[in-house]
Amino acid sequence: MARMATTRRVMISTAAAWLFGFLIFFPILWMGLASFKTELEAFAIPPSFLFFHWTTENYATVQERSDYLHHAMNSIIIAGGSTLIALLIAIPAAWSMAFSPTKRTKDILLWMLSTKMMPPVGVLVPIYLIYKSFGLLDSRIGLVFILCLGNLPIVIWMLFTYFKEIPRDILEAARMDGATIGRELVYVLTPMAIPGLASTLLLNLILAWNEAFWTLNLSTSSAAPLTTFIASYSSPEGLFWAKLSAASTLAIAPILVLGWFSQKQLVRGLTFGAVK
Amino acid sequence: MKHVLGAVCGASCLMLAVPVMAETTLTIATVNNGDMIRMQGLTSEFTKKNPDISVKWVTLEENVLRQRVTTDIATKGGQFDVLTIGTYEVPIWAKKAWLVPLANLGADYDVADLLPKIKDAVSADGKLYAAPFYGESSMVMYRTDLFEKAGLKMPEKPSWDFVIDAAKKLTDKSAGTYGICLRGKAGWGENMAFLSAMANSYGARWFDEQWQPQFNTPEWKTTLTTYVNLMKEAGPPGASSNGFNENLALFNAGKCAVWIDATVAASFVTNPKESKVADKVGFALAPNTGLGKNANWLWAWNLAIPAGSKKTEAAEKFIAWATSKDYTKLVASKEGWANVPPGTRTSLYQNDEYLKVAPFAKLTLASIDAADPNKPTVKPVPYVGVQYAAIPEFQGIGTQVGQQFSAALAGSTTVDAALTAAQSATEREMKRAGYIK
């Protein structure tokens, strides 16, 4: 009897988990389905779920109209570059705050987080003017720089919480054995923090990949990433959902694949630190 | 080694001696509309004729483009050489000296052929500040089969009374057919484009001669009450979130008996590839109340050169090409006369081949002619623009008012409360901007 109750509970919770997962996944599934419909079917009321005339014509149109590879390459460089630079700055910063805190550490951490509270549009014009003066408009370097700055507070906070979980005794033991700060960072701290580092890297890669405000405002064509590629398929006059869905599916495909293969690290990293 | 070095030096000298053609790259910002996409596809025809010019396209959603381009032009960023802007922006930006006047479009450009109303809308102080790419007004599109079945005959110049009556008669909610589909989604270019034009036909105006907002007048009350009651009785469910595209989908699916919207929709609703009712659509002028003004707007997407561009000569060459009569012929030869950009040139409406494939052409022209941006409504106004007032503050005000009216349509507020809120919001913004004290 007890076993039956347990089995039933497992079945119910499994079904609930699948249902919840399906609900979360549904917008992406719907986008994928819409990308194979004609414009008229994509807009049809009531909508058809699976029984429609499947077509790949939207993908062909998107390929014909836009240079997907150019935009994808820009996204890879901008998201990858900004994440790597942010990590290079954030690792020593988080390390020092986690292991050698001063009485101002908490204030600094809060101040860093407060920069994320301001809406970016508030500083658009000054940033635009600075970028214009330094010739950084529509450049990959400019976008790497702004996305790195934008995500730095989150990277530092995440790494700080991961580092805080590492027992200080291990570092002290390493020091007793004569390890320098550099060796301590590379051989002791980093291997222990790898799950945290991996999840920080992945999460920031996703944030940078999806960032639309700065990428849309500071790029035109040469440095335009996939966010501008998607934005070019929305239309005020004319049906565009199917083509927009095809463009969006293509735009999220690389990050979806990356997320799929690294989900183990992502989950492990996210449950490792204090920030859940 | 010496030989290799000599050969390299020699080759370098030869390369330097070859005259290099300096290439100008134009960056063009545009919106994702069918006519614009077609223009992008035909760019190679322009670059073939002008091998020293190459073109880069930046296509963005209308509101994103507006924000992006405004930031660049206000900071003189110089990121764009040609902009796609609406008739709303042209007079405002021309006044701020943000646009370069188009004085060298070429001898064969034929400025006189531009439709007078459209030409006026893109000119300031007698100078052309943008070249119209395509123009539109609004008109009535209706289902001829449903009208015939109900024994109704749509007049060429219908009155609001007739349209309202017909919409109510043709509504069959159980069959999923709605008498009328109108814009309800909030936004200065969405529901307010339609409602401002409708209000004009009822004799209402945005501001009086002293820039005093007019939402507390009986004309606005009649307009909004009529609109809300009509939509409640004969409109589709969830109309407060319907814009152009949603109504287009409803009409094409055969769910609307009457749709009043942009003339550019005529080519979509008569296209059998897109519309289930392509052969059952009739057209008429936007309705009136006998006060001398129809409920139709005037809009054009135009190409202009921002003051920050350093490539004005090449940019003007491109604009002259894309808005010329030859471009129209080029599109016709490649994609047929039905696909040429409408609403900008008189000659198009005298072309038999175009008139043959575009049954809506005459009404489009009549609608454009019926709209007067300088005298949009019955009473005098201090602003230019039919469905908008061409002042920088209008975008914000129009959207705020649009939200109130959309809420009235959704039933979350009353008509009176929406008008009072619209009046106070507009008064506040106009005081802040210094128009009134």
TrEMBL record, chain A:
CDD domains noted in UniProt: TM_PBP2 (cd06261)
Transmembrane stretches, start-end: 12-33, 76-96, 108-131, 143-163, 184-209, 240-261
Subcellular location: Cell membrane
PROSITE patterns listed in its UniProt record: ABC_TM1
Domain spans labelled ABC transmembrane type-1: 72-262
Cell membrane found in the keyword field: yes
Membrane topology listed for this record: Multi-pass membrane protein
Pfam families linked to this entry: BPD_transp_1
Keywords: Cell membrane, Membrane, Transmembrane, Transmembrane helix, Transport
Gene3D superfamilies to which the protein is assigned, alphabetical: MetI-like
Family: Belongs to the binding-protein-dependent transport system permease family.
Protein name: Carbohydrate ABC transporter permease
Taxonomic source organism: Bradyrhizobium agreste
Lineage: Bacteria, Pseudomonadati, Pseudomonadota, Alphaproteobacteria, Hyphomicrobiales
